[in-house]
Design brief:
It contains 14 helices and eight strands. Strands 1, 2, 3, 4, 5, 6, 7 and 8 form an eight-stranded mixed beta sheet that branches. With 311 residues, it is an alpha/beta fold. The protein folds into two domains: 6-246, Rossmann fold; 255-302, no CATH class. The two termini are 36 Å apart.
């Protein structure tokens, strides 16, 4: 039977520490969590200009995969999540950082955070699991808690991208094969086209400054209460920083191959061989670690990975 609430779903997914990591990144590997978390943290630092004086909010912090890498870069890091189990695991993984505050969400609101109190906010791989009503309400709450002049990084699945469309079709065919007697998974993957996502951000009270759309993800950087000169300055800066923020064509290609591994359409051995043959690039170690993690975690599905000590 499908869970009725987001909390029930994510608490079950985070029933133990290993499952919590797996739920936030499809891998139970600490090495993968650190590699992917650092990759995203670098994107966020460039997108938002995170500094040592900033109070930074992460909506949907999960097991602290990203927060663990962002917290050392800012003055205070606030992580909020709907799942008590996720908050527990995040607390363990961020225990060495004294500037961390964790809060449990009770509904689609950030009541525990004051108006105009946060310098920077971000949410990664979270809004894509929400019904559109909840997505919009959280965007409206982010606009409320941001200080005037603050900025936010937002992302969700890009239905207009070929890989995004393929990922959507996995959801369609999964439902088509089901008995359709119960409700759909409350935290299933959901999708936007870029124009739709920008509309939600704008109507929530944010100022979309840029929208990167040439990948499986729509990425928006938005501001709050910026004057015209500041908007123009930020747009110029973000255009110059595009390579550090936007997912590259190589990221999209390797992500596409990784999705095929997850859904059983390709063997990790073949994808790893292709990754190994690539020239040096930031995406190469990221996806190599990720695909190896998938293989190590599921030897019964893929067979033992050479050198893993199994078999």
């Amino acid at each position: 039977m499908a869970e009725l609430t987001y909390r029930q779903k994510w608490d079950r997914c985070a029933a133990d520490d290993k499952k919590a990591l797996e739920a936030v990144d499809n891998s139970a590997s600490e090495q993968v969590a650190r590699t992917t978390g650092e990759f995203v943290a670098r994107q966020l630092t460039s997108a938002l200009q995170i500094s040592a004086d900033d109070t930074v909010l992460e909506l949907g912090c999960g097991a602290g995969r990203i927060g663990r890498q962002v917290a050392p870069r800012c003055g205070q890091w606030i992580g909020v999540d709907i799942s008590p189990n996720m908050i527990r695991v995040a607390g363990q993984r961020l225990a060495d950082h004294e500037n961390v505050r964790l809060e449990l969400l009770e509904r689609t609101r950030l009541d525990m955070i004051d108006d105009d109190s946060v310098d920077k906010a971000y949410t990664v791989a979270v809004l894509c699991h929400m019904d559109k009503e909840d997505l919009f309400l959280y965007l409206r709450e982010i606009a409320r808690v941001l200080k005037p002049g603050g900025r936010a990084y937002l992302e969700t699945w890009n239905l207009a991208d070929p890989t995004g469309w393929q990922r959507w079709m996995y959801e369609v065919e999964f439902w088509n094969r089901s008995d359709q007697q119960g409700r759909k998974d409350v935290a299933r993957n959901q999708f936007c086209v870029p124009e739709e996502f920008q509309l939600y951000a704008d109507r929530a009270g944010l100022q979309p400054l840029t929208c990167f759309r040439d990948s499986p993800w729509v990425q928006i950087v938005a501001g709050k209460s910026l004057d015209a000169a500041s908007v123009e300055t930020e747009r110029t800066r973000l255009a110059a920083e595009r390579a550090a923020i936007a997912y590259s064509p190589m990221f999209g290609r390797l992500f596409h191959d990784t999705v095929k591994v997850i859904y059983g359409d390709r063997h990790p051995r073949d994808v790893l061989a292709e990754i190994d043959a690539l020239p040096t690039c930031p995406e190469k170690p990221l996806f190599a670690d990720f695909v190896r993690g998938l293989w190590v975690d599921e030897p019964e599905r893929f067979g033992p990975m050479p050198g893993s000590g199994e078999g």
